[in-house]
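1st attempt posting a full record on here, be nice pls
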Amino acid sequence: GDYFWNSGMFIWSAQGPYNKLRAQNRGSGNEVHHLIEKRFLRNTNFYGSPKDMMSVVLTKAQHRAFTNEWRKQLAYGRLYSPDAVQFAASIVYADYPELLAIVNRYF
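the predicted structure (as tokens):
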């Protein structure tokens, strides 16, 4: 697959719909990350299934770091406006403009 870099550091190896990446990377040791957490699907203009949402392939550590940052920005158990989710995404992906550009298409 394609490889993407940020500041000279490997970030992710592929982007595409979650279900496609999951099938392609089964058994690889890498994980597939929804760019916008599934819990926020209703806060976007995306009307498909979470399995069709744009995602990226990450290492387990990278996936954990992004997920933890989402949790830090928007705690579980609360409802958030689309603007709040988009603002949180701008923080989560502040160092990854390529990912933020993809996320912004959902708003």
